[in-house]
Each structure stands twice: as structure tokens, then as C-alpha cells.
Specification:
Number of helices: 17
CATH architecture of one domain: Orthogonal Bundle
CATH topology of one domain: Cytochrome Bc1 Complex, Chain D, domain 2
Structural class: alpha+beta
Shape: globular
Helix content: 25-40%
Bound molecules: heme C
CATH class of one domain: Mainly Alpha
Mean pLDDT: 93
Distance between the termini: 25 Å
Low-confidence stretches: 1-25
Oligomer: single chain
């Protein structure tokens, strides 16, 4: 598969190779002997979470001894899933003839881990490792051309569907698996080039809507229970997740169908307050994780734990006296090894934003970018105070959700801007991620990302900077809103909305170079 990273890696290899010859043929890369942090440390976990707006329901987590009692999940070799029209002849038969192959477990199988580059490569393996294999007989909808077309499944240059994999755990029985990091964080551009570790665009919520509708994810009662476990907030009487126990099958289907690619109703968020998947490039410099900044990011161990919680662990948190889901016996559950999670963190940290392949070339275009930069830096427009170019186009701070009053003794007060950008506060106030804040997001990679805003309400930058989005008769171009919404104002963040048409165009052209 041709990816921007593969190309970058190729250059790196060439450069590395050149340096290698200069140094008289000795292996140039020094051995890398990292002190691997532990994913779970009770003291670190205890101070990890930014308090929720309703402090008494701030989560507490299980102990490290519980987390470590889970089995290490072996990482099997995985194989691409192709669009049915692009699949090599005899592909599935070939897969059926292959032996299972474990690449990384805790019984001695591991990829080469000598240099830092080895660790980073191994981390990409973890990034791509799916975690929930299903028999092929349950996965036939991934071969349904009509469905793939209807949900807008992106297809990579080589005909594969990035973010989905076949794994072989038993010979003769390939399984289709999802929920690798890439399922939500790998982006396929219109020309089929893929970019990993960003806001992905596999329409996962729409696949799940189909599975809900066709009974693949259980009956209505099962959907209600799962939704309550994932999102329930019994302490709110008027929140987006308050009535989940009364929802009908149609409501589940419609809420999921309403989520465009790049937007997903993550656990602890909600079906009526989905989240746009985050940009992971540049994350090493970010102080908080997630749109509401609900986890601190103090170093690799926080990202390692986040990876585990994000895919698995956080639904076993308790919120005050509320325990959303019965705690399973740890031996029945799987986890990353410290090594695997560390390699994953190194991989994600190593990635930078690929440059826009269509940079401004003509004198006119260059002048437009220069003008856009001026608009951005203009103190009247204030962009740079929050999206600081010196810090990856964010100031790493938290802004207030409308209506939230920060307690005077808030532990993060040094990093809180005492103002609100005025976007819809529901996600930041009425969910299990509700810290009362929206963090200032990075603007890196805007040229390939979207939809924008914490719920992904605006499909493009043109829409985000269109003043008509403030009107009640506006039809959002990204996530439209809860099912049944015909029109909805996308409120707040009014910066740049009063620009002249020319300056707005220049600003957007500049933003697409970041
Ligand atoms: C099912 C979809 C899904 C999968 C699978 C997934 N993520 Fe995410 N991820 C999201 C969404 C959606 C967000 C944004 C959540 C929010 O803002 O509340 C996010 C946010 C993040 C963030 C926070 C970044 C920031 O700056 O806010 C990190 C880090 C992250 N994911 C890493 C990972 C890693 C590593 C993996 C694999 C171990 C992974 N994700 C798997 C959907 C997913
Ligand atoms: C007071 C701080 C502040 C200022 C000033 C500000 N922003 Fe933002 N910006 C934010 C916050 C906070 C968000 C996220 C809001 C949300 O998701 O609810 C955001 C979101 C964005 C997004 C969407 C990014 C994404 O990942 O979804 C873009 C693009 C953006 N800002 C560009 C700009 C530009 C250009 C300017 C100047 C015209 C500007 N901002 C001024 C704080 C600010």
C-alpha cells in the first residue's frame, strides 16, 4: 500500500543508508535500550483524569494488579481486506491455506527490537493489530458492494479497505477483524493514498447502523443495554444519554447513520454527541487527550494507558457509585504488554504531518498564502493566541464550555483559558467525558482532515468559516445533529466569520498548508 509514511520511510532509509556508508560500513544505528514504562501504575492512574464538571462522578479505575492479570493479546500476522471488485483471484482460498502466525506475544515471539527504528516499526504493527475477530460468516456485509457504496467506504490505491484486516488464529478459518487504531485513525484520501494516525474516514458508525438493523449486534434490549453501559449517565435527568433505556431499534440505527466518516460515538461520549476522531500526529506535544481534554498526557505511559482504555478499559471505570458494566474476571480479558504499548507510543510520537501534495505554486497562490498567514497572525483575529504556531497550532490549553464555572481550586487552573468559544456545550458538560472544557485543537493536517469541530458538524473549512452556520435554519454539512434534525445552528467559535470573502479564502488556503 502506498502511504505518505511509506514514502517518508523510504526517504529516511535512503538518508540513513547514506549516513551509514559515511561511517565506514559499521551499523550506524545505535542499540536502543529503553527503560520501558509500566502501563499501569496506581499512583499515576489516580492523578491521570481531569476532574469532571460534576466532580462527584469523576471516574476511578481498577487497580494495576487487575489490569496486569489480563492475558497479553498475541498479535497475529494480518492481511488486507479488499473491496470485492479489487480482491486478487483466489485470495480467500489462499488465506484458508495459511498457518496462523503470531508476531508478538509474551512467550518469546517478538519482532526485531534492537534500534529505535525497530521499535517504531514494531509500534506500527501494534497500531495495525485488530482486536475483535469475527467469523467470515458474520462478516459477509463487508463484501456487499451496495452497502460499501452506500456508506461511502473509502478504498486505498491497492483496492484494500484500510482499518479492516483478516487474521488467521486457526488454520482454514480466516476471521475479519476491526478496532485496530487504524479503524478510526487511518485516513484514505480521494486518490487512495492513506495517512495513518489521524482522523480516519472508515464509516464505522454506518457499518454498525447496518449491523443494528440486521440484528447482527443483538436485539433491541441488547442494544439498549450496550448503549447504557457505554454512555449511560444516570445522574443527569436531561442529558443526551438520559433516555437510552427507552430507545427503539430505529433510534439506534438513525443515530449511528447520522455519523459521517471521521465521526464516531465513542464510549463515554454518546450517540447524540458523537466525537470527531482526533489527529494523532504531533500528539507528543499535546498536554491533554480527547476533545474535552479528559486525560492528562504527561509522557508515554499516559498514552500507553490511554490506548488500552480507549479500546477496552474505560467502560470498567466507576463514576461515583455508578459502575456501568460488571467487572469481568481479568483472566478472560486481553491487554497489551508494556513492550507492545510502548512501541505503539513511540510509533505515534514519531509521526509528523505530511506536507500538502498540492502546495501553492503560482505567484498568485503564494501571495494568497502570504495574505492568509497575515490574516491568521493579525491580532484582531486572535487565531494565534489560541492556535500558537510555535506549539503546533494550539496553546495546549482548555477553554470553558458555555455555562461552566471552574472551581477556584481546579488542579489544571494554570492551563485553563477563562473564556468560552461558545460551541455546543453538551459533549463537555453532559457526558462521562464532561470535564467542562474543550481543548484548543491543533490545526496541523487540516488539508486532509474533516469534518471539523468536536462533534464534526462542519464538513469543510469553507463551512467552518461560513457565518451562515450560526443561523437556526442552517443545515450542517458534517454531523447533522440528533436524528430528526432538519436544520441546526453550529454555534460558537465566531473567529474569522466576519472576514471579507477574499481574506476568508486566503485564510483557508493558508490553513491548508499546515
Ligand atoms: C472506534 C474508533 C477508534 C479506535 C478503534 C481508536 N480510536 Fe482513538 N479516538 C477515536 C475518537 C472518536 C477520538 C476522539 C474522542 C474525543 O474527542 O472525545 C479518539 C481520540 C484519540 C486520542 C486523543 C488524541 C487527542 O489529541 O485528543 C488518542 C491519543 C487516540 N485516539 C489514540 C488511539 C490509539 C493509539 C488507538 C489504537 C490503540 C485508537 N486511538 C483507536 C476513535 C478511535
Ligand atoms: C479563544 C481561543 C481560540 C481562538 C481565538 C481561535 N480558536 Fe480555533 N478553536 C478553538 C477551540 C477551543 C476549538 C474547538 C472547539 C470545539 O470543538 O468545540 C477550535 C477549533 C478550530 C478549528 C477546527 C479544528 C478541528 O480539529 O475540528 C479550526 C480550523 C480553527 N479553530 C481555526 C481557527 C482560526 C483560523 C482562528 C482565527 C480566525 C481561530 N481558530 C481562533 C479555540 C480558538
Amino acid at each position: 500500500m502506498k502511504t505518505a509514511d511509506t514514502i517518508a520511510a523510504l526517504f529516511m532509509t535512503l538518508l540513513g543508508g547514506a549516513a551509514h556508508f559515511v561511517s565506514a560500513g559499521e551499523p550506524s544505528a545505535p542499540a536502543f535500550l529503553p527503560v520501558i514504562p509500566r502501563i499501569y501504575d496506581d499512583a499515576e492512574t489516580a492523578t491521570w483524569h481531569v476532574p469532571l464538571a460534576l466532580g462527584k462522578v469523576s471516574p476511578s479505575f481498577l487497580t494495576s494488579s487487575y489490569f496486569y492479570a489480563r492475558k497479553v493479546r498475541p498479535i497475529y500476522r494480518s492481511y488486507p481486506v479488499y473491496h470485492p471488485d479489487r480482491e486478487p483471484a483466489g485470495y480467500l482460498e489462499k488465506l484458508k491455506s495459511l498457518e496462523p502466525e503470531v508476531l508478538w506475544d509474551d512467550t518469546g515471539k517478538r519482532p526485531k527490537l534492537e534500534t529505535e527504528a525497530d521499535w517504531i516499526r514494531a509500534g506500527e504493527l501494534v497500531y495495525d493489530a485488530p482486536i475483535s475477530p469475527q467469523p467470515l460468516s458474520d462478516s459477509l456485509h463487508f463484501r456487499d458492494r451496495e452497502l460499501l457504496k452506500r456508506i461511502g467506504m473509502p478504498i486505498a490505491t491497492d483496492g484494500s479497505l484500510p482499518g479492516l484486516h483478516y487474521v488467521i488464529r486457526t488454520k482454514g478459518q480466516p476471521e475479519l477483524a476491526r478496532f485496530s487504531c487504524g479503524t478510526c485513525h487511518t485516513r484514505v484520501l480521494p486518490d487512495g493514498v492513506t495517512i495513518k494516525a489521524t482522523q480516519g474516514n472508515l464509516p464505522l458508525a454506518r457499518i454498525e447502523a447496518h449491523e443494528n438493523r440486521t440484528g447482527k449486534s443483538g436485539d433491541e434490549a441488547a442494544l439498549r443495554l450496550a448503549a447504557f453501559e457505554y454512555h449511560g449517565t444516570p445522574w443527569f435527568t436531561n442529558g443526551p444519554n438520559t433516555k437510552l433505556k427507552d430507545w427503539t431499534l430505529d433510534q439506534f440505527v438513525q443515530a449511528r447513520e447520522a455519523c459521517p466518516p471521521g465521526v464516531y460515538p465513542n464510549h463515554n461520549g454518546g450517540l447524540l454527541v458523537p466525537a470527531r476522531a482526533a489527529e494523532l500526529r504531533g500528539i507528543k506535544e499535546r498536554r491533554y487527550l480527547d476533545g474535552t481534554g479528559h486525560m492528562r498526557h504527561r509522557g508515554p505511559s499516559d498514552l500507553m494507558r490511554f490506548s488500552d482504555f480507549h479500546q477496552w478499559g474505560s467502560i470498567y471505570a466507576s463514576f461515583g457509585t455508578f459502575q456501568p458494566q460488571a467487572i469481568p474476571e481479568p483472566e478472560t480479558q486481553e491487554r497489551y504488554s508494556d513492550e507492545q504499548a510502548y512501541a505503539l507510543a513511540l510509533y505515534v510520537y514519531s509521526l509528523t504531518v505530511p506536507p500538502n501534495p498540492n502546495p501553492p505554486r503560482t505567484t498568485e497562490d503564494k501571495a494568497m498564502v502570504a495574505r492568509g498567514r497575515e490574516v491568521f497572525m493579525d491580532s484582531g483575529n486572535r487565531c494565534a493566541t489560541c492556535h500558537d504556531p510555535k506549539q503546533g497550532f494550539t496553546n495546549n490549553k482548555l477553554t470553558l464550555a458555555s455555562g461552566f464555572v471552574v472551581p477556584a481550586d481546579h488542579p489544571e487552573k494554570a492551563h485553563i483559558m477563562p473564556r468560552s468559544v461558545g460551541t455546543d456545550p453538551a459533549f463537555a458538560l453532559l457526558t462521562r467525558k464532561g470535564t467542562g472544557f474543550y481543548k484548543v485543537p491543533t490545526l496541523l493536517g487540516l488539508w486532509y482532515r474533516g469534518p471539523f469541530e468536536h462533534n464534526g458538524s462542519c464538513a469543510t473549512l469553507e463551512d467552518w468559516f461560513d457565518p451562515r452556520r450560526l443561523r437556526d435554519d442552517y443545515v450542517p454539512t458534517g454531523w447533522k445533529g440528533p436524528p430528526g434534525t432538519k436544520t441546526r445552528a453550529v454555534k460558537g467559535h465566531e473567529f474569522g466569520l466576519d472576514l471579507s470573502a477574499e481574506d476568508r479564502k486566503a485564510l483557508i488556503t493558508f490553513l491548508r498548508t499546515l
